Amino acid sequence: MLSWTCPAPLRDQPRIVMGHGGGGALSAELIEHVFAPAYGGPALAHTADAAEIRIGGARLAFSTDSFVVRPLFFPGGSIGDLAVNGTVNDLAMSGARASHFSCGFILEEGVETDVVARVAQALGAAARAAGVQVVTGDTKVVEAGHGDGIYINTSGVGLIPDGVDLRPQRVVPGDVVIVSGPIGLHGVAIMSVREGLEFGVEITSDCAPLGGLVEAMLAATRDLHVLRDPTRGGLAASLNEIAAASGTGVVIQERAVPIPEAVGNACAVLGLDPMYVANEGKLVAFVPRDHADAVLAAMRAHPLGAEAAVIGEAVETHPGMVVARTGLGGTRVVDMPLGEQLPRIC
Q1: Strand 77-78 relative to strand 73-74: parallel, antiparallel, unpaired?
Q2: In Å, how far are 91, 182, 189, 211, 300 from 307, measured between CA atoms?
Q3: Residue 325 DSSP class
Q4: Is residue 308 a contact partner of residue 219, using CB atoms and an 8 Å limit?
Q5: Quick one: DSSP state of residue 34?
Q6: For residue 141, with 0-12 CB atoms within 10 Å meaning exposed, 13-18 middle and 19 or more buried, which class applies?
Q7: Is 168 left (phi over 0), alpha (psi -120 to 50) or beta?
Q8: What percent of the chain has pLDDT over 90?
Q9: CA angle (36 as vertex; 34, 39 as ends), nearest 5
Q10: What's the mean pLDDT when you consider all of the chain?
């Protein structure tokens, strides 16, 4: 533990720190004050998981991502699986089914060719399982000591079906909040391997493509309001982003949030909050109350949503704020994370 570094130090840093890549408040500030003004364009104002592009009469979702997870292989997956599923899931949060995919490998001099082959094979298998074609790519090599074995950059596109409009601005008070299954598995799985920690049972990453689950939900109703996959920053970050963008408050029932016992125990030992731990195969949905039962049933009928649960609702009070009702009858504010509890998890 002496080698650990704080991923979220003071916010007035003149240099980039680990927390700027954590998906929390520091990441948002970097985007707002550095990248968005430099790039310009109205599409960046939405800061969604994927951009919507109109070409002719078609609505395309387009997303890009980079993966720097350490270690490269972990229980339940590898950086190759993450590279596919992370991009596929970002597209799925727009309602799109990923169709085409690009992949760039940044390799460190000295990494074993067999390791590169294993990652490439895992990536190809994950792409076939998700129904996406890898159609272009790139390879670069950096000097030894200037990388960490393998980094992967990806982009993906998919077609958004007619009648689908998923964005946080559609959330209204009364919407039901549904999470697709147990949270915290990916982040704890990564940490257990990275730090050589044992918790009495192997914790496996939930890394999986969510396109099929989203299709099942849209078959129940096209009137879903917003979907998010709670990766960096965990469920707490996703809920806060939606609350801020929609101008509504969010109330969750703490005991309703599905947290596996092993994850809860591991987080207690490490001093972590499962609400802030990353996931790679879960989504959170805000659904009109009239459609909530049908959507929940459709999710539970799908293998990746079998343990879906209603955890709360959108409310008029405390706009832009997420509040949890505890098992003892009290309430606590669930803030946007500043940086990231567990860096380098995707």
Answers
A1: antiparallel
A2: 22, 7, 19, 17, 6
A3: E
A4: no
A5: I
A6: middle
A7: alpha
A8: 75
A9: 105
A10: 91
Which one, of 90, 93, 82, 162, lies nearest residue 123 by Cα?
82
- Across the range 63-80, mean pLDDT stands at 96
- Beta-bridge mates of residue 155: 64, 102
Domains of the chain: 48-159 (3.30.1330.10), 168-333 (3.90.650.10)
* Alpha carbon distance 183, 282 (integer Å): 7
- pLDDT the model gives residue 2: 46
pLDDT at 116: 98
Cα gap 250→343, rounded to integer Å: 27
The model carries a pTM of 0.89
| pLDDT surpassing 80 at residue 240 | yes
Calculate ∠ Cα 145-147-149, nearest 5°: 105
Residue 330 makes CB contacts below 8 A (sequence gap 6+) with: none
Maximum distance among all Cα pairs of the chain, rounded to whole angstroms: 57
Mapping DSSP onto H, E and C, the string for 65-84 reads: EEECCCCCEECCEEHHHHHH
Nearest CA to 280 out of 149, 147, 123, 84 is that of 84
Say if residue 12's pLDDT is above 80: no
The whole-angstrom separation of Cα 258 and Cα 328 is 17
47: exposed, middle or buried (C-beta count within 10 Å: 0-12, 13-18, 19+)? middle
Cα–Cα distance for residue pair 249/22, rounded to 1 Å: 23
Q: Which residues pair with 22 in a beta bridge?
A: none
Question: How high is the pLDDT of residue 34?
Answer: 82
How far apart are the two ends of the chain, measured CA to CA in Å? 21
Going by pLDDT thresholds of 50, 70 and 90, the confidence category of residue 9 is low
Write phi, then psi, for 96 (nearest 5 degrees): -90, 145
pLDDT higher than threshold 60 for residue 5? no
Pairing of strands 77-78, 97-108: unpaired
Q: Which residues make Cβ contacts (< 8 Å) with residue 197, sequence separation at least 6?
A: 191, 266, 269, 270
Q: Which token pair is 150?
A: 């393998």
